[in-house]
């Protein structure tokens, strides 16, 4: 009778089984280990999506994954189909309640995330795991609907590697292979496909933005098409990159770097809007623009701004032909409006890279109709009465003077009246201009620009607000200068008869370093950046510059790889006047070459034998010379027995060599490498002796 098993310690009896298994994670069964690896991988894949979906989706996904992890640790059975059906119905109902539909980008991604999480609750066979893996691959692709940044690309690369590792594990049914071995095999397999992927990237036709959805208005907006006090100040707290600019030759001084955005002419007392006559439609005639002086050639790499405009350097006139903006963006409709703003026929929801030429010295808008002049002098009734009274007193003091004199008087007043330039001016009430101009005297560029325009209009001068970006950071090693959202700026323009619109930047009167040196107010750093700056400010700056340089090259070489770049590549390869047909022929030839190479590799691989199999084949051939009928399925021990039966004591030395091979290959702690040359020399010597002597 077997001895009774000793009772477990009291501490072990009090600890649940699943906690005991959690404590001894190195001894987990393979199913538990692989399941937990898959759950962690799913959480990593869906993580970026959860920041764009409703909060309940993150909570639902986390609860389902934790539920499945607890079942794996306890070794408990999976839930029944009725329970799963109820949870699925609840998920679909919440999706409909939140998104009001099961169609569309957000609803579709929500369902994919939920279905992937729920599928883990029925991992009963390998085919269920494969469904999860391929759902994961599809979810990795959908990350591009939100971002195509370098950081997202790295996340997608790690996600793909993890999913490939899980697929390899699912196809290794025997034993308990280490995760690192499956990960190494997945990495080697991915590297084998890397050349083909690079070739397809270079030659696959570009038909336009693959991931941009025209109806999608989400994402970072940057500048707005309207202006409320506080809007530009909030944007200036954002250190995100708006665009990059690179100049050919001598760059203009920092105070001349005005990148023109929305031009706002209508004011209702609270908000500034574009003029009705400046509606975004192609003009019947070109803008009233005259340029002088030396031109400045530059290149812009623009981030998605979700506005129907291009914030280009003042003043960038239209140029006909391939060198013009229309030639560089043939799928777009672009035009320069009468407000000197570059309009587009759609929201800029993708990265664009264009080359242009600007003239820092220019005149525009010399002629304004009486109707336009009236609209540009109009102020809403009942708003900011104290500022209007102040303007009337100034007009009485100065008398009948021209618009330039009035503008100079206002700038002198700002410079001498202790105004403060700040990112935190606080909130304003109904009569915001009164509060800023006469009481607080603290504000951001938008406060100075809008107050300047209101006073100029009160003095009878047509004026308007212009928003955009001013200044840029110093160039990096590639010559690109970064323009951040913190460079967002607002300035004013007033109109002089027969001379046109004149720029006036009241911010330069109170904070000249903001304009002359491109030094926006410092933004409050985040937690990580604060920690790095506390350790080493220089290190934090170098790390940031290095990362932004990598991001710039990613945008230029990968995201900026366009149809024109493809044709330029074919031209450098010797193709004259490349077109779509040449691109298609190159792609077909590439695929044919890859298919031929893959077929040849498969044929060679089929004929190639593993090292131990080659050894056994050579050994069988050698033993047949001494009368041993060696078969492919005979192991070394069987061959040794056949040698002893055939040759007796004369073959004992050869049999011992075969026994040594058996121990080398199959004994505990066996060697994976082939035996050395001395073993082969002994086998050849003994077979030669048996072959020459009598049996």
Protein architecture, described:
With 695 residues, the protein is an alpha+beta fold. Helix content is 51%, strand content 11%. It has 26 helices and 17 strands. The strands form six sheets. A four-stranded antiparallel β-sheet has the order 10-6-1-15, with helices on one face. A four-stranded antiparallel β-sheet has the order 2-14-16-17. The protein has a three-stranded antiparallel β-sheet with strand order 7-9-8, with no helix packed on it. A hairpin with a 4-residue loop joins strand 3 (266-267) and strand 4. The two termini are 55 Å apart.
Major sheet strand order: 10-6-1-15
Rg (CA only) = 37 Å
**Class inferred from helices and paired strands:** alpha+beta
How far apart lie the N and C ends?
Answer: 55 Å
Mean pLDDT over the residues: 80
The count of β-strands is: 17
Number of distinct helices: 26
Shape: elongated
Q: Give the percentage of residues in beta strands.
A: 5-15%
Q: Which bin fits the share of residues in helices?
A: 40-55%
Assembly form of the protein: single chain
Stretches with pLDDT under 50, minimum 5 residues: 1-6, 209-221
Q: Sketch the major β-sheet.
A: 4 strands, antiparallel
Descriptive key words:
four-stranded antiparallel sheet; elongated; 695 residues; disordered N terminus; alpha+beta; 51% helix; 26 helices
In short:
This protein is α+β, with helices and mostly antiparallel strands and 695 residues long.
List the helices and strands and how they pair.
Elements: H1 10-14, H2 17-23, H3 30-50, H4 55-74, H5 81-99, H6 105-119, H7 126-142, H8 150-170, H9 179-203, H10 231-236, E1 241-248, E2 258-264, E3 266-267, E4 272-273, E5 289-292, E6 296-302, E7 309-310, H11 325-328, E8 334-336, E9 342-344, E10 352-358, E11 361-364, H12 370-375, H13 385-398, H14 403-416, E12 420-421, H15 432-440, E13 442-443, H16 445-458, E14 463-470, E15 481-484, E16 488-496, E17 500-504, H17 506-510, H18 512-516, H19 527-535, H20 537-559, H21 563-572, H22 580-607, H23 611-624, H24 636-647, H25 652-666, H26 677-692
Parallel strand pairs: 12-13
Antiparallel strand pairs: 1-6, 1-15, 2-14, 3-4, 5-11, 6-10, 7-9, 8-9, 14-16, 16-17
Helix pairs in contact: 3-4, 3-8, 4-6, 5-6, 6-7, 7-8, 8-9, 9-22, 13-16, 19-20, 24-25, 25-26
